[in-house]
Structure formats: structure tokens, C-alpha cells
Automatic annotation (TrEMBL):
A UniProt-annotated Pfam family: DUF4142
Sequence segments annotated as region (Disordered): 188-214
Sequence ranges assigned to domain DUF4142 in this UniProt record: 49-179
UniProt name for this protein: DUF4142 domain-containing protein
Bias (Pro residues): 193-205
Length: 214
């Protein structure tokens, strides 16, 4: 009887160890919260911020591509026309990449811009000449600043290697477009949100005294 109990205990212990090992294999890293919003993939844990990045980049292209085409017809400045052309070309390529990553990671994407973006499109569609140029440069520069903070934040902290690669590509495009829009000379930087207030500077590490070897 005692031998049987010992055998059962050993068998149960083996199952317990296997179960614990399985749990650790499927859980995200301790740095990532464990919830139903997280999906464990071969490329690493995929969380809400990762999905939101793909959605926001997709939506950026859904309004910036048509607005870039508006610039070809409505802008007074040749520089604005050129910037619009770059936006169309770059976002068309980035949209293909976005949809590829979304399909690989199982992230559903929207098929239309968000309500704010739709209102900006309607505003620009009703303008021509210098008024179009001014609003084109400022609306798009402000929008790129917002999406830049999303892309940079996800790039800095994502646990998923595929999202990390995608964010790297996206942040390059966003930085390029901010620079292009500023090159029009029409961006009102005073109207942009102020940078966040820096946190307190951590104390410097204590100096380490170097001792000479005897």
C-alpha cells in the first residue's frame, strides 16, 4: 500500500512538473501583463499596443494617400505638390507592408480613416491654392507627430520581434514625412503640442575610487 501511494505521488509530481513547465512555455515574459488581450506567438507576445500600431499606420495611409493626390490638383506651391507625391508613394508601399504584417500576426485592419481623418479630408477637399497649402502642411505635420509617438513607444517596448521590425520601418517613414512637411516652410511649430515635461534627473552614480595595485 505504501509503495502504491509512493508511486502515485511520484506520478502526480511528474504531471505537476510537466504542467508547470507547460505554463511557463506559453506565458508572456514577466515584463508583459498576462491577460486575454495578449496572444503568444512564435515571434513573441503580441499585446494591445502592438495591434494598435498596425491599425494606426493603416489608417494613416487611408487618408494621407488621397490627400497627397489632392495636392497634385489643389496646391499652389510646387513644393507642396512634391511632398504630396512622396506621401502617396511612401504610404502606398507602407500599406502593403502593414497588411502583410497584420495577416502574419492575425490583426484585423480598418478599411476607412477614423472620424477625425475623414473631417480633415473633407476640409482639404474643399480648399485650393494657398489655403490648401497651409492646411495641408499643418494638418499632416500634426498628425505625423501623433503617430510618431505611437510608433516610437511601441518600437521601444514591444515584446514581439515582428512588430519590432515593422515599427522600425514605420518610424523611418514618419520621420521622413515630418521633415518633408516642414520643408514647405508652412508649418506653424508654435501650434504643435509642447514636448512632455522631463522627469527629474536621476542622481549620478557614486564615484568609484581607483586603487593602485601593489
Amino acid at each position: 500500500m505504501h509503495r502504491l501511494l509512493r508511486g502515485e505521488v511520484l506520478m502526480f509530481g511528474g504531471f505537476a512538473v510537466a504542467a508547470v513547465a507547460t505554463i511557463f512555455l506559453v506565458m508572456p515574459s514577466s515584463a508583459a501583463p498576462v491577460s486575454a488581450e495578449w496572444t503568444v506567438l512564435p515571434s513573441g507576445p503580441l499585446g494591445p499596443a502592438d495591434r494598435d500600431l498596425l491599425v494606426k499606420v493603416r489608417q494613416a495611409g487611408l487618408w494621407e494617400i488621397p490627400v497627397g493626390r489632392y495636392a497634385q490638383e489643389r496646391a499652389a506651391s510646387q513644393r507642396v505638390k512634391d511632398v504630396g507625391m512622396h506621401l502617396v508613394e511612401d504610404h502606398s508601399k507602407l500599406d502593403v507592408v502593414t497588411r502583410q504584417y497584420a495577416a502574419k500576426l492575425g490583426v484585423p485592419l480598418p478599411d476607412q480613416p477614423n472620424p477625425d481623418q475623414q473631417s480633415w479630408m473633407a476640409q482639404l477637399a474643399a480648399e485650393n491654392g494657398p489655403a490648401f497649402d497651409r492646411d495641408f502642411a499643418n494638418l499632416l505635420r500634426a498628425a505625423h507627430g501623433k503617430v510618431f509617438t505611437v510608433v516610437a513607444g511601441v518600437r521601444a517596448g514591444t515584446r514581439n520581434s515582428e512588430v519590432r521590425k515593422f515599427a522600425q520601418q514605420a518610424v523611418t517613414v514618419v520621420m521622413k514625412h515630418m521633415t518633408l512637411l516642414e520643408s514647405t516652410g508652412l508649418v506653424d511649430h508654435n501650434a504643435l503640442p509642447e514636448p512632455p515635461t522631463p522627469s527629474a534627473t536621476p542622481p549620478a552614480p557614486a564615484a568609484v575610487e581607483t586603487r593602485r595595485q601593489p
